[in-house]
Structure formats: structure tokens, C-alpha cells
Amino acid sequence: MRFNGEISYRDDEEEEEERENENNLQSYSIGVGFPQPQKLIVGYALTSKKKKSFLQPKLEGLARNKGILFVAIDQKRSLSDQGPFDIVLHKLTGKEWRQILEDYRQTHPEVTVLDPPDAIQHVHNRQSMLQDVADLNLSDCYGTVGVPRQLVITKDPSSIPDAVSKAGLMLPLVAKPLVVDGSAKSHELSLAYDQFSLSKLDPPLVLQEFVNHGGVLFKVYIVGEAIKVVRRFSLPDVDESEVINNPGVFRFPRVSCAAASADDADLDPCVAELPPRPLLERLARELRRRLGLRLFNMDIIREHGTQDRFYVIDINYFPGKIWENARVRAHIYGFSPESGAEQVQEKVC
Asked: With CB atoms counted within 10 Å of each terminal CB, which end of the chain scores lower, N or C?
């Protein structure tokens, strides 16, 4: 069956890889009593950039072979007049779109919406995104997971030094925009070394205590129940002399982008070692439940000099490179009308 045109040309190596992936897909099942359906319709509403990075020909081909069809949602038409859909996959912003989706969820409870707009909105604000991690206060035999101490500043830059002193935060401080709206600017950050320079920052923002972490962070991608971890280069460690001798605010573009991959770098094993899998699985499971999200990633750091002390410093919904640069490929292998939000079962290769 063809859908939205022909599959683009692939060389022999690509075709062999797809055959291998298809064979792997056939080895998985959702369990007794859940047969593969003949067809499942996924309606998608994505920005052009997200569509380009996500809906690549290889993914569409694999999905089509499993009876899964991706159908573009026409935003100029009523959502209820389109479909019918089994799943609605989206990453658009704006109050109007959120209301459309909420109304659709109310009138079509049989359709799985990935993910609920209110849940997504929760992680678009850095004041609220980490609260569930802090409340969880996860600690077990594999380690502890918390968040850096932080302070929210909504206005009046001149008040920042005094507010920082009253909160007892230690310099240096990482400054991040309060709202995450998908723009490059919302992912920029600054590092403030001295009290005086804090008044040069631009609210609204969040100030986080900087935790030395060996210049490496871990991006933990959550796709349903699947987890994939990759290393990224991050800000280097800061010692006391640097804080004293480098007054000012230093601004950085997006630090942990895919181009900063550290997976193949020659790193100190103590820095490069991935967080324990059981710890990440427990954290992901708890946050899926608390956040109500199925597609997201966490930026995690390990405090330098420790083996088991971790901090979540950011959470992002439906991250841009989850399938591409992060090398996370969704192998959709089973569906069940009874399984609700579990309709899409993912396996990370």
C-alpha cells in the first residue's frame, strides 16, 4: 500500500537495514489476546520543522509495513470532521490549538492524544517543570535524584542580588528563561559569577545553583515505556578561583544540542558512566505518571566527585531530535483498542 506518494530512493545498505528492522519488529508482540490490527491512523499536527525531523521516509515506510498510516491534520478544518483517528500526535502552541484539542478529547475519548495540552503546558514553565522531581525526592540503593536549588525572578532586575542573598543561593548561578516556547532563545542560558552582575540579567527567568558535573550531561529520552540515554557536552566545571577572578555574566547558546554529542569522546570513566538503568526506569515511570506525558526528555547531571548523586536540570516535551540525532528509533510493534494511552508500544534500538 502506498500513502502520500512513493517511498524515496534507498540504496542497498538502507534496504538491508530496513529488512533487518522489519525482522526485529516481527519478533515482538504486545502479548496474548492483543492481535495486530489491519490499520491504525495517526493524525499529526506538527510544525514544518518538526515534520521534517520526525516524519522521515524510513519511519513512514516501517510504520506503513505494520499497518500504521500518518495523516496530516488540516488546521483550517474542524478536527472532528477529519479522520477518524486512533491517535493524534501534535506539537503546536497557542491557546486556540490547546482548546481545540481539549474539546476534541472530550468528544472523542476513544482517541489517544499524545500528549494532553495541559500536561505539556506544565513543562513549558521552568518554575513548574521540575517541581514533580523535587516532590518525588527519589532515593534508593542506586542513587539520589533531585533538582538544583533555584529561584524564580519575574521582574525588576535590580532586585535580583538581594533576592539571591535572602534565598541563600551560592554563586555561580545559571540563568534560564522562565518560559520554554520552542524558540532558540528559550534554550539560551547565562552563567553569573558575581553578585553585582546579577542585576544585568533579563527577567522573567529562573536562577539555578551551578553544580559541577564534569562538563557532561545525560539526555534521557522517554518514548512510552522505552528509555534511551545519550551523552552531551555541557558547561565545564567551575572552581572558586574562577568565581573570584571572572566577574560578570557569560552567555551561552543552546549548550546540549545534538552537535555537542559526547558519546564517542574519550572521557574519564567516572564522568562518562551512564546513570544506573534501574534508577532511570523508576524516575521515568514516576514522572510519566506525575506529568501525564509519554514523549519527553530529561537533562540529568551527576555531581562531579560523586558516583550516585544526580540532578534533573530541564525537562522538554517531544524533543526535536528524539528520533534523528539522538538515534532513538521508534519500533512500533503492537496496538490494542483496550490499552488507551498504551496503544503505541515503542522499542528503542
From this structure: N
